[in-house]
Every structure is written in structure tokens, then in C-alpha cells.
Specification:
heterodimer, A: mainly alpha, 10 helices, 0% strand, B: mainly alpha
């Protein structure tokens, strides 16, 4: 009889201990980045807004403005394009444009694409680049990020549209709306979920290094055009973090700090957007 | 009359565009598979598969491509990470779905969302800052092992932290989906809470939990950057979990510089990407299949 209660006790302790471990690991990660990176940034905030010098990765002068700009130039167009395509495909999957067999097939391929390691996308894009005999450039970086973000955004939008009550669709049809017009109403109702999905996709895109490191050129110059080499924050962090020059490593901590900050802001914005867009959603059901 | 026509034209165009876009997405899957196969044909046709997989000699300049050390390294790292992440993840999921009050539930879930959103290079940087000095300075000496800290064990821990959010959120979802009557019926028979969880809930949610572990496995298997930063990049079969090694994805990254110059090495690295793609796809499909069975079982 006693043994049962003992077992209950032990496992309760184990459960709380493992939750504690998970929380601590997050605190350690955030703490280490904020402390180390913040330290560097407080002493030398100019690294954020200076262009890199000629020997930047070898401990030369300069900052990592090129990586911040490169990240922005790659992620924003990629997210916009992936968002539009993903929204369209999600509407296609949910509304009466397709039948359940086609939808099931497309959903399965989306799930597979979602799980595909980002390095596979990188290598795929690289093979395409080799085939068309083009060096790594900003445009290739944008395209690979579209590929990476598309499945995530589409699946989130899909789930959001699935949650729209059927009555809404039925009443739109009953007053004679076409499928296109109905989709617009349904899409508005699902807007909070879709916005969250787009921002999650964007967060994934801005933090991913393995896909863009092969395709965007990864040089240390300012991005100057669609067909010129560009680099992104995660690539820079990867190149700098294991450098043997301490000053270069410090820049990696500062870059990691900025990256965490950007991802954190995206997370916050997605929560705010969800609240803002939920004005289209019926309440009090 | 014109207004109606315009509406119908819009309707038609939208239907066509969406169909094309949707087919395009499925097309990506086929395109990736086809391109990678085509490009790795050079290495598959020149070497036997057995030679590629079981030879441990990776020396692109002498045209020998043995993936064995990287394969062993990948298996080690993934196993270490899953041994750490699976129990902790499942226990945390039990806390979230069974023990936590609803306020704590939201609090912990948002913590886990943040953890899931952290980029993988940041995990790598933190591991270099915290974990590597810890393993080489405290854990190694405490166990009487000489280690630089850049080792399979460190990489395994980093991956474990990275896959925890996936395992926790999917397992908690599977547990939450179980009907509340199951819990009530058990408790009314006089079982303790843990006995209910152990005997009934974990069994009921086992397909969901299993598929969560498989998805986490797929993620750990294909993760590149964080691993490449902490594993040490030695192309050898790791002698213990405290020695450096190489995984399949990190091999691609570390050989990337030379990759452009030798076509057959390029092909060999693309072959690695193909392997990753196929293995991860297999695990994801398996996870999806198991999850569908769970849903059928509980009429969800």
C-alpha cells in the first residue's frame, strides 16, 4: 500500500525536475547570449551600423551591418512571397476548390517538406545554381528561404482556416457568393492564425543558416544587388563563433544577441497581431 | 449583367491559380528528389554502395569517399540526444497536460514556444560559451577523461535541447486529446494519479508520443549548424562519446570549401543530402501514419 504512494511521490519529483531542467536550459541560453552579446554591444554599439572592412572575418576593422541588411533583404521578400503562395494554397486545401484526395496528397507533401532538413534545401538550390552556372547570390538566398518557409506558412494557414466555423461558409454560399468571394470572408476570419503562421515562418527563415550558407554567396561585403553576393546573420555567427581571434568571436556574440532580439520581437509582434486581427472573429460561443 | 460576368471570371482565375500553386508545392518534393538523385548518380555509379557506406576513409584528394565515420557519428549523436530528450520531454508533457494549473500551463507553453523559435546557430554559440568549457573543465576531469569539450556528448546535449520543444508540445497535445472520462474512470477505481498516467494515459497516447519522438529524431538527424559548431569536425570513428567526430550534415558543411573544385566530391556530398532527405522523409511519413492511427482510435 505504501509503495504506491512512494511511487507517486518519486515520479512527481521526477516530473517537476524535468520541467525545471527544460526551463533552466532556456534561461541559460537566453542569459548567456544576452550577457555576452549585451556586454559587447554596450562597449561597442557601432558594430551594428558599420560596414565590414576588407579583412573583417580575420579580425579586421568594421561591423556586421552587411549581415543585418542581408538578412532583412532575404527574409522580407521571401516571407511576402511565401505568405501569398501559402495563403492561396491553404485556401485551396480547405475550401471547395479541391477534393479530399488531392488535399490529402498535398498535405502529406507539405508535412514532408516541413520536416526536410534545411541543409537539403541548401544543397538542392546549390545544384540548381551549378546547373544554371550562376554564383551564389541574394536572389538564390531569397528563393531557398521561400522553399523553407512555404510549408510552415501553408500548414499554419491551413489549420487556421480549418478552425473557421462551417456556418460562415454556408451562409456566404446561401446568399449567392462565388467560391472566390467566400474564400475572402473565410480568409479574414482565419487572419489571426495566418498572421501567426507567417511570423513563425519568418522566424524560421531569419534564423536558418544551413540553407543560405551555400546559396547566398556568404561574402563579407555589403549586399548590392539581386545577383550579387550577400550574407545573413546566422551565417556570420557560424563563421565567427569558432574563430581563433577573440575579437571576432565577440562580434559573433553581439550578432547572436541581435538575432535573438529580432526573433523575440517577431514572437511579440505575432502575439499582438493575433489580438488585433481577432476583431474579425466571433466571440462568446 | 457585366458585374456577374466579372465575378465569374474572378472565380475562374482564382480556381486555376490556386490549383497551379498547390501542384507546384507537390512538384517541389519531386524536383528535390530528382535533382539530388541525378547529381549523386556520378558517385553511385563509380563506387559500390557498400564501399561508400562501410569504408572509413574520407580523402577527396585521393578519390576515396567513405561515409562510415560520419554515419557512426550521426547515430551516436542522435542516440545521445534522444536518450536525454525523450524521457525529459515525456515527463514535461505529463506535467503540462496533467499536473499544471491552467495559468502555469500557459506560462510553460509560452516558454517552450520561445525555445522552439531560437535559431540553431544561437544554440551553437551558447554551447560554445557554456557547455564546451563545462564538459572540458568539469565533467571530463570529474570522470577522469581527457576531452576538449568539442565532442559527441556535447553535440548530443545541444540536439536534445533543440528537439525538446517538439517532443513536449506534440506529446502534450496527444495527452490532452484523450477523453476526460478515461481519467475519471480510473480515479474512481481508486488509483493514484501516477497509476492512471502510467497504466492508462501513456498507453492511450502512445502512438502520439511515439510519433513525437520520431519527429524529434528527424529534426536531430538533419540538424546541421549547431552540431557542426560543437562536434569538433574530426573525420574519424569516435572512440568514445567524449571524443570528436563528424555527422553527415556537418560533413557537408565542413567540406563545402573544396566542394566546388572536384566534381566527384560534389556528387558525394549531394549523395549525403539525398540520404538525409530520404531517411528524414521516411521517419516523417512513419510518424504521420502512427498519428493517424491514434486519431482513428479515439475518433478525433
Amino acid at each position: 500500500m505504501k509503495l504506491r504512494y512512494l511511487e507517486e511521490r518519486i515520479f512527481k519529483i521526477l516530473i517537476i525536475f524535468s520541467v525545471f531542467l527544460v526551463m533552466t536550459s532556456l534561461v541559460i541560453i537566453i542569459g548567456a547570449v544576452l550577457f555576452k552579446g549585451g556586454n559587447v554591444l554596450i562597449h561597442n554599439p557601432r558594430v551594428l551600423i558599420t560596414a565590414p572592412g576588407p579583412r573583417y572575418l580575420l579580425g579586421g576593422e568594421g561591423g556586421f551591418l552587411h549581415a543585418i541588411l542581408g538578412s532583412i533583404y532575404m527574409v522580407i521578400p521571401a516571407t511576402l512571397i511565401a505568405g501569398v503562395i501559402g495563403f492561396g494554397v491553404a485556401l485551396f486545401l480547405q475550401s471547395d476548390y479541391s477534393n479530399s484526395r488531392i488535399s490529402g496528397f498535398i498535405r502529406t507533401s507539405l508535412d514532408i517538406l516541413w520536416g526536410t532538413p534545411s541543409i537539403v534545401y541548401g544543397i538542392f538550390m546549390l545544384t540548381v545554381l551549378i546547373f544554371i552556372q550562376q554564383r551564389g547570390c541574394l536572389l538564390a538566398g531569397i528563393s531557398v528561404l521561400i522553399l523553407l518557409e512555404l510549408p510552415i506558412i501553408t500548414r499554419y494557414a491551413d489549420e487556421a482556416i480549418k478552425a473557421v466555423p462551417n456556418e460562415l461558409k454556408d451562409s456566404a454560399y446561401s446568399v449567392g457568393a462565388t467560391r472566390y468571394e467566400t474564400s475572402r470572408i473565410v480568409g479574414k476570419y482565419a487572419l489571426p492564425g495566418i498572421a501567426a503562421g507567417i511570423l513563425i515562418g519568418m522566424g524560421r527563415g531569419i534564423g536558418d543558416a544551413a540553407s543560405v550558407i551555400f546559396t547566398s554567396g556568404a561574402g563579407s561585403v555589403m549586399p548590392s544587388g539581386l545577383f550579387e553576393s550577400a550574407t545573413a546573420l546566422p551565417i556570420l555567427i557560424f563563421q565567427q563563433a569558432s574563430s581563433c581571434y577573440p575579437s571576432v568571436r565577440e562580434h559573433a556574440y553581439a550578432a547572436a544577441f541581435s538575432l535573438v532580439l529580432i526573433v523575440g520581437i517577431l514572437n511579440l509582434v505575432s502575439r499582438l497581431l493575433v489580438r488585433k486581427f481577432s476583431k474579425y472573429v466571433m466571440r462568446g460561443k | 449583367m457585366r458585374r456577374i460576368e466579372l465575378r465569374l471570371i474572378k472565380e475562374n482565375i482564382s480556381a486555376k491559380t490556386m490549383l497551379i500553386l498547390a501542384l507546384l508545392i507537390s512538384g517541389f518534393f519531386i524536383a528535390i528528389f530528382a535533382t539530388l538523385t541525378l547529381k549523386s548518380y556520378l558517385v553511385i555509379s563509380n563506387y559500390s554502395l557498400k564501399e561508400l557506406i562501410f569504408s572509413s576513409n574520407w580523402d577527396p584528394e585521393r578519390y576515396s569517399f567513405g561515409f562510415f565515420p560520419a554515419i557512426v557519428g550521426t547515430i551516436y549523436v542522435t542516440l545521445v540526444s534522444m536518450i536525454i530528450a525523450a524521457p525529459i520531454g515525456i515527463l514535461s508533457a505529463i506535467y503540462i497536460s496533467e499536473y499544471a494549473t491552467s495559468r502555469r500551463k500557459t506560462f510553460i507553453s509560452s516558454f517552450i514556444d520561445i525555445l522552439a523559435g531560437i535559431p540553431s546557430v544561437v544554440f551553437g554559440v551558447c554551447a560554445l560559451l557554456v557547455l564546451v568549457p563545462f564538459v572540458s573543465g568539469y565533467l571530463g576531469p570529474a570522470l577522469g577523461i581527457e576531452t576538449t569539450g568539442m565532442c559527441v556528448f556535447t553535440a548530443g546535449i545541444v540536439l536534445a535541447v533543440m528537439v525538446l520543444p517538439i517532443i513536449i508540445s506534440l506529446s502534450a497535445e496527444a495527452l490532452n486529446a484523450l477523453p476526460i472520462e478515461l481519467r475519471d474512470a480510473c480515479l474512481s477505481l481508486g488509483t493514484t494519479k501516477w497509476e492512471t498516467i502510467k497504466g492508462v494515459l501513456l498507453k492511450g497516447a502512445s502512438p502520439g508520443i511515439f510519433s513525437a519522438i520520431l519527429l524529434g529524431f528527424g529534426r536531430a538527424f538533419g540538424e546541421t549548424m549547431a552540431v557542426a559548431m560543437v562536434i569538433g569536425g574530426k573525420n574519424q570513428i569516435p572512440s568514445s562519446i567524449f571524443s570528436g567526430g563528424q555527422t553527415l550534415p556537418s560533413l557537408i558543411v565542413s567540406s563545402f570549401g573544396e566542394m566546388m573544385s572536384i566534381p566527384i566530391e560534389q556528387s558525394a556530398l549531394i549523395f549525403i543530402a539525398l540520404q538525409l532527405f530520404l531517411i528524414v522523409t521516411f521517419f516523417n511519413l512513419l510518424a504521420k501514419y502512427i498519428n493517424t492511427r491514434l486519431r482513428k482510435r479515439w475518433y478525433l
